[in-house]
Write a structure and sequence with these properties.
Blueprint: H1 3-8, H2 10-34, H3 45-58, H4 61-78, H5 81-101
């Protein structure tokens, strides 16, 4: 398998994409360390990466994620069935299609949703 064929394969494309992202981040880090980019305006990518675990712990991100998931669950449990029907119809045929089906005035068509 040639290098060109490997780069076009699924695994090769993923590896090549990951290497490109890492190279860009390393390039930005080198430019900041060399002084071409002001480090007081743009933090080092390594500093950002090192701060992620601290942010997750100090800002209680996992608890907030869990709380949001619970709110979504309970909202889905207590939503009236008409809300789900409206969402399905509006995404399937657009809001005008929902209006047409439910008999709003000046509706030229009746979709089947």
């Amino acid at each position: 398998m040639t290098l060109k064929a490997w780069a076009r394969s699924r695994g090769g494309a993923r590896v090549l994409g990951a290497v490109t992202v890492v190279a860009l981040i390393a390039g930005v880090e080198a430019l900041i360390r060399a002084g071409f980019i002001n480090r007081f305006i743009v933090p080092l990518p390594s500093q950002i990466l090192a701060a992620i675990p601290r942010i997750i712990v100090e800002e209680n991100v996992l608890h907030r994620f869990w709380q949001t998931a619970q709110e979504i669950f309970w909202r889905a449990c207590f939503s009236p069935p008409s809300a789900f029907r409206w969402a399905r119809c509006s995404t399937a045929s657009g809001f005008c299609g929902w209006r047409a089906k439910h008999g709003w005035p000046h509706s030229p068509r009746r979709p089947s949703c």
